[in-house]
Amino acid sequence: MQIAVLLYDDFTVLDAVGAYELLGRLPGAETVFVAKETGPVRGDQRSLALVADKTLAEVPHPDIVLVPGGPGTWPAMADEEILAWLREADATSTWTTSVCTGSLVLAAAGLLKGRRATCHWLSLEELAAKGTEATGERVVFDGKYVTAAGVSSGIDMALHLLGRIAGDRTAQIVQLLTEYDPQPPYDAGSPEKAPAEVVAYWRELAQQSAEALQTS
Amino acid sequence: MQIAVLLYDDFTVLDAVGAYELLGRLPGAETVFVAKETGPVRGDQRSLALVADKTLAEVPHPDIVLVPGGPGTWPAMADEEILAWLREADATSTWTTSVCTGSLVLAAAGLLKGRRATCHWLSLEELAAKGTEATGERVVFDGKYVTAAGVSSGIDMALHLLGRIAGDRTAQIVQLLTEYDPQPPYDAGSPEKAPAEVVAYWRELAQQSAEALQTS
Questions:
Q1: Do A176 and B198 touch (CB under 8 A)?
Q2: Domain DJ-1/PfpI: where (chains A, B) (predicted)?
């Protein structure tokens, strides 16, 4: 079982690493980080780079495809080399997955048309505009397509996938070994729970960014 | 405000990245990944390397020190260059922090003597044996020393720290933007909650590993 994690400039590092840390512990699985070119790929905070060990061309048929999100999503959606690789990999994958705005890249490749999927809460409208039934759920399964909400939700997605692939007991062992017993000191992790003015502020900012992109 | 994340061979990637993803969003902070040498440092699953941009010598006085854990903890505890850097950095740091078995490295540097601290649940006894009051809590503050339990707990630690440094509102914004609204499909993330036979099996395995290390 080969797991390919796609890297591209300006991805959100925890999108990739949260899911990888748990899913990579799948017994018998080999994980490979892939990008257009091998070498360091810098995340959106710019202070951390992850190393891609293989090019896209070297990993044409992974069993599991994992696409992180981040500000680099928008250039990635317009990158024909990335989209072509996703279509080819998806043609033979067992699972095609994403975290955060990674689902926008899958949608841009034409893989989520008419499917139920999720995304970072700030990008659900854009996901819907791509012909996808965008839900606000944290993890969405639609056939072999598995999408997760923002950033940290990749951890929950990985546990779900581990359970489906290797059984509940294996997933529970991985949860125990990664001590995933969340105890956040605040309860502000979704737009339904966060202070209303904070949510409104970020929605406004996202709207302005989208408009700026369209007129640039 | 400078945040230094220590990397060493065989660290657990999510230990570093979970805390980094949230804490790195601290307004005005600059994060730098440091290691004995610059370049890729491979994590414990071997399939992923993070890039250290600076050597230890280049970052002698960070405001926040963050030490991840992992299987590489034990060699790191015996590495005088790493221990000397930690002592020097700690002498002027505002916060000295760890995730998972990273607290064993802080203890090996003599920084946790008599202090309350936490660790991955499988290594609490070893932490206590180093003269530390080892608690099983998820995040422990003792003065400027902040330690977190296993792997994923660095995310909770980062939120606590963000609140202390920048206030509750900033921490809530970061929680919302990283959509940290955990919904694990199982409730097996601590030894109190996981199936008893799973916990017993891993305790036995850890005991055997410790004995093998002592006789090797």
A1: yes
A2: 2-162
Q: What ipTM does the predicted assembly reach?
A: 0.96
Contact list in B for residue A139 (CB cut-off 8 A) is 183
Q: What contacts 24+ positions apart, CB below 8 Å, involve A111-119?
A: A111/A86, A111/A87, A111/A145, A112/A145, A112/A147, A115/A142, A115/A143, A115/A145, A116/A140, A116/A142, A117/A142, A117/A145, A117/A147, A118/A147, A118/A148, A118/A149, A119/A69, A119/A147, A119/A149, A119/A150
Q: Give the residue numbers of B annotated as catalytic, written as ranges.
A: 100
> How far is the C-alpha of A66 from the C-alpha of B47, rounded, in Å?
14
Strand A139-142 and strand A145-148: the pairing is antiparallel
Residue of B139, B177, B188 lying closest to A175 (CB–CB): B188
Nearest CA in chain B to A39: B40
This prediction has a pTM of 0.96
- CATH of the domain spanning A2-182, picked from 3.30.310.50, 3.50.50.60, 2.60.40.1180, 3.40.50.880: 3.40.50.880
pLDDT tens digit at each of 216 positions of chain A: 999 999 999 999 999 999 999 999 999 999 999 999 999 999 999 999 999 999 999 999 999 999 999 999 999 999 999 999 999 999 999 999 999 999 999 999 999 999 999 999 999 999 999 999 999 999 999 999 999 999 999 999 999 999 999 999 999 999 999 999 999 999 999 999 999 998 998 888 888 877 776 665
User: Are A101 and A70 spatial neighbours (Cβ–Cβ below 8 Å)?
Assistant: yes
Instruction: Provide the residue ranges of all domains of chain A, joining segments of one domain with +.
Output: 2-182, 184-216
Burial of B99 (0-12, 13-18, 19+ CB in 10 A): buried
**Chain A residue numbers touching B21 (CB-CB < 8 A):** 12-14, 45, 151-152
Among B150, B171, B178, the residue with its CB nearest the CB of A152 is B178
Q: Look-up: residue for tokens 């007129």?
A: A215
Torsion of CA B78, B81, B86, B91, to 10 degrees: 130
Q: Cβ separation of B50 and A45 shorter than 8 Å?
A: no
Count interface pairs A-B at CB distance under 8 A. Answer: 227
Q: Distance, in angstroms, between A67 CA and closest chain B CA?
A: 15
**Which amino acid, one-letter code, is at B47?**
S
Nearest beta carbon to residue A178 from set B30, B150, B160: B150
Give the tens place of pLDDT for each residue, B50-85: 999 999 999 999 999 999 999 999 999 999 999 999
Task: Kindly report the number of other CB atoms within 10 A of residue A153's CB atom.
Answer: 31
